[in-house]
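quick q for whoever's on today - can somebody do inverse folding on this one?? i tried earlier but teh output was garbage lol. tokens:
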């Protein structure tokens, strides 16, 4: 005979409780003892827990934890309940906790043991309040601790109501709950549980002078306990027919009081008789107090959220009407803390000339004051732009406006001695005026990150633009303007530093992360709105980072991003990215005499332009020649250097042409520098490294240029000639 058959004959079942996975495995006899079909089954923990009396469940937790700590057996008696809260039988459990380590390295345990039926209360009787495995008061205290923690963690009114509905009170568990609020002189239903949709209609909008228990509780601030239907009918005959149809046996109505003010009432209804002993009334009163405080906190949080949402909606503009030949998409994501408002903003402004302007900015901070300054500054920039001022004039006026706000706030804040209110704040901003017919952009920048351009073949380059100090630091600041053309099929991205640096990144690593998204084949074929969503998702991570859970919220700074696309093949507006011939890549950069540090930016531009070039040595050669040519202009002339680079052709057979123009008529000369000479090798390097080069005189000045032809593999790795045994010349490959 099998062991299972022997155990079943003496009404003993086997079970295995896996605490790590939250599952319980039962044999047929154990399932029968728990009121389930008599067959082996594996159930979630919550399904088995619902079969135990709440008092016994609270006590068994302490017994198991003690057995785990001491390495002993866990023994207890448990009452098995049916769905109506009646005792089916009483069983004795004997189990051994076995420690195990989860794949995540967390210490946990399994319970392996038996349950056996014993002669206790008869089926069909109500659950008595006599202690089985421990003391009633200890069970009550454990329940109240759990209830208080769960209600304290609820963030919204809906969550508070869900927690209240899931509370399993020790010894008496209501099957119907309702929370009443007060709106003027009438009751309102905030939420309910255990009722069908529409059951709350007769109780909604009920006058406070109605002969109804909840209305009397709100009027008097005192609880009402109705242990029998007869008591309900005797005290409230007018509204008894409304309650009679639900088939409840006992009711408790308790006031929800916060800071001495009755904000509503809580109803707990039972399908089994409850005498409402002092212990039971104490539990209900305590739960009502915690519920009132939780609802108050949730109401305040929801009001703050509504305020923040309204503030965002009032300050964040909607993008204007569609522009022929262009598409615009924008996103704003507030920081994860506080009221979720901040100083980032974007705007799209129709101009009197028929053009339009794109503005993106970031006021220092992400609090209410930053949001207020942002709103004022956005309106000022829109007003200056609508008057027809050029980009540099718009930013100059905006800087004076913000500095003026600081001066006035210092005078107004003196009586309040508010250091944070008095402290000046600056703002970064980028203003781009666009001609939709030609794609010409005029950009002025005030301490803001530079724009990025995604070319028609998917290559992404940072577009160097001249800039000045952030707004508000020095009132009279000049902001130079950079002019370039957005070619058909190209997309420009403007963003605040939150999109770049969130997640612990700096400017370089942050741009590298965004470049992967912009250059991705999937996103290049998607619409502009989907591309904007993909950029935000790449920074914020998966959705679990936005919600309560083990992963921290990564919204550490506000984010604003604007995408401008000039429609054409491969523009990211849903069109195909395939091309009959690969389009050329171009970049242009001006290096002024007073800005020699921009030579480093030019080197970076060349590397980004040639990011997929087959021969890395050729890329190094191009960077070296560009650096040498720009340096020569700054050293040997009095003017600025203009760099123009273009890569054209199919992959593996492309041509790179670089031109550096200046205003000097003096032509470069080939020299023979000595071993110790510190200069004079520029022309020699160009002659050695370039496939071809030259100098083109112009009406005013000259243009020095060179070309490189892409090699599919470096010359030193090429196979030797079959007849001569020599490797081919690099320029012939």
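ok took a stab at it. sequence:
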């Amino acid at each position: 005979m099998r062991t299972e058959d022997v155990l079943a004959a003496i009404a003993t079942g086997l079970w295995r409780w896996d605490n790590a996975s939250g599952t319980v495995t039962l044999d047929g006899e154990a399932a029968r003892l728990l009121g389930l079909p008599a067959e082996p089954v594996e159930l979630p923990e919550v399904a088995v827990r619902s079969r135990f009396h709440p008092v016994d469940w609270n006590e068994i937790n302490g017994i198991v934890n003690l057995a785990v700590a001491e390495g002993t057996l866990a023994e207890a008696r448990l009452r098995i309940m049916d769905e109506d809260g009646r005792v089916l039988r009483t069983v004795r459990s004997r189990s051994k906790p076995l420690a195990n380590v989860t794949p995540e390295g967390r210490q946990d345990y399994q319970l392996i043991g038996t349950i056996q039926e014993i002669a206790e209360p008869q089926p069909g009787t109500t659950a008595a309040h006599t202690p089985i495995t421990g003391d009633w008061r200890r069970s009550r205290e454990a329940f109240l601790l759990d209830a208080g923690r769960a209600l304290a963690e609820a963030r919204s009114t809906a969550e508070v109501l869900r927690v209240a509905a899931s509370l399993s009170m020790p010894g008496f568990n209501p099957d119907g709950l309702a929370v009443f609020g007060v709106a003027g002189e009438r009751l309102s239903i905030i939420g309910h549980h255990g009722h069908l949709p529409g059951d709350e209609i007769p109780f909604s909008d009920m006058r406070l002078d109605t002969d109804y228990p909840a209305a009397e509780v709100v009027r008097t601030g005192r609880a009402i306990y109705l242990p029998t239907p007869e008591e309900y009918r005797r005290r409230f005959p007018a509204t008894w027919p409304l309650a009679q149809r639900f088939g409840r046996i006992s009711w408790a109505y308790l006031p929800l009081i916060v800071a001495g003010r009755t904000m509503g009432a809580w109803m707990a209804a039972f399908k089994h008789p409850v005498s409402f002993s002092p212990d039971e009334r104490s539990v209900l009163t305590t739960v009502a107090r915690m519920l009132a405080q939780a609802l108050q906190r949730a109401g305040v949080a929801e009001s703050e959220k509504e305020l923040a949402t309204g503030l965002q909606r009032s300050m964040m503009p909607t993008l204007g009407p569609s522009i022929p030949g262009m598409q615009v998409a924008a996103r704003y994501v507030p920081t994860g803390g506080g009221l979720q408002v901040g100083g980032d903003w974007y705007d799209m402004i129709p101009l009197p000339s028929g053009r339009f302007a794109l503005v993106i900015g970031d006021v220092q901070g992400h609090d209410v004051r930053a949001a207020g300054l942002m709103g004022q500054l956005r309106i000022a920039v829109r007003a200056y732009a609508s008057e027809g001022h050029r980009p540099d004039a718009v930013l100059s006026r905006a800087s004076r406006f913000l500095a003026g706000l600081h001066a006035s706030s210092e005078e107004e804040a003196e009586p309040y001695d508010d250091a944070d209110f008095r402290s000046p704040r600056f703002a970064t901003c980028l203003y781009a005026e666009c001609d939709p017919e030609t794609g010409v952009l005029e950009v002025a920048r005030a301490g803001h990150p530079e724009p990025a351009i995604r070319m028609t073949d998917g290559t992404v380059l940072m577009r160097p633009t001249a800039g000045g100090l952030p707004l508000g630091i020095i009132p009279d600041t000049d902001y130079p303007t950079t002019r370039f053309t957005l070619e058909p099929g190209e997309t420009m991205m403007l963003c605040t530093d939150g999109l770049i640096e969130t997640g612990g990144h700096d400017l370089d690593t942050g741009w590298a992360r965004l470049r992967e998204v912009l250059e991705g084949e999937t996103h290049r074929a998607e619409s502009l709105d989907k591309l904007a969503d993909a950029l935000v998702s790449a920074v914020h991570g998966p959705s679990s980072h936005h919600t309560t859970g083990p992963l921290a919220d990564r919204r550490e700074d506000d984010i604003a991003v604007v995408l401008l696309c000039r429609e054409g093949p491969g523009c990211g507006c849903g069109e195909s990215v395939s091309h009959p011939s690969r389009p050329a890549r171009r970049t242009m950069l001006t290096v002024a005499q007073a800005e020699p540090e921009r030579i480093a930016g030019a080197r970076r531009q060349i590397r980004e332009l040639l990011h997929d070039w087959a021969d890395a040595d050729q890329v190094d050669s191009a960077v070296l020649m560009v650096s040498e040519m720009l340096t020569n202009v700054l050293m040997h002339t009095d003017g600025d250097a203009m760099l123009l680079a273009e890569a054209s052709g199919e992959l593996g057979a492309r041509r790179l042409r670089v031109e550096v123009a200046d205003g000097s008529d003096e032509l470069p000369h080939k020299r023979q520098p000595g071993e110790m000479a510190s200069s004079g090798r520029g022309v020699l390097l160009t002659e050695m490294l370039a496939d071809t080069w030259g100098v083109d005189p112009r009406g005013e000045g000259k243009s020095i240029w060179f070309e490189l032809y892409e090699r599919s593999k470096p010359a030193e790795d090429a196979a030797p000639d079959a007849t001569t045994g020599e490797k081919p010349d690099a320029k012939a490959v």
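fwiw The chain has a mean pLDDT of 79. also Residues 540 and 679 are 50 Å apart (CA to CA). so keep that in mind when u check it
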